[in-house]
Amino acid sequence: MFKSKIFNKVLLTGSFIVTLIIIAKLSGVLQYALLPTAGSEPTLKRGGWLFMSNILPYDKYKILAYNQKNPDHFPGVYAQRLIGVEGDRIQIKNGDLYVNDSLINGNFEINQAYKIDRGFTNYLIGKGALNEDFYPIDENHYITQLSKKDLTKDYFFERYTTTETDPYIFKTFGKKWNADNFGPLTVPPGKVFFLGDNRNASLDSRFVGFADQEDIVGRVFYPKN
Length: 225
Fold this sequence. Notes:
- By secondary structure, this protein is an alpha+beta fold.
- Helix content is 20%, strand content 32%.
- The chain is built from four helices and 15 strands.
- Strands 1-2-15-3-4-13-14 form a seven-stranded antiparallel sheet. A four-stranded antiparallel sheet has the order 7-6-5-12, with no helix packed on it.
């Protein structure tokens, strides 16, 4: 009898928790997803879980989830950093981000493109990096995406920026820009501008265009950003 009462209490408590989770999920208070891409590394790891909520403030420079609706690109819910809101002036110069003429890059950790040598490549692969993350440009050098924390004086590295016009950016904005040299442009009324922290490996507002404010579905609270 005593064990039966304990079992019933545990069952009731479990059912109550599950019901709360279902309600939270349906209302958007608690949302979760598996991240399939590396577009927001190093903050959000590829293949990791992220949790978000629609009751947290949609603060600028936080990672939010939004519905990407540009039919020329893969549709779905994207998780990227909110960089610009209505009236903000956005520009990227040689890979450095400016918002309203203020340099923003140092506000959070990002990945950028680097040219590295074979030794550094082998070192990173030995630490768990994937072969597919390295693009060979000659017999001894590769292009890959690294944060400043990944760099070491033991190996050769230098920042790598593109100069050629990106055809996808040109199609969206009609300008001869690319991922490293973009803008300036001003965010229109009712719109927002997103960037992935993995700057040269992210399908974000540089390519798909502005998102509508109403397309935001929640703010990521785990992993912390």
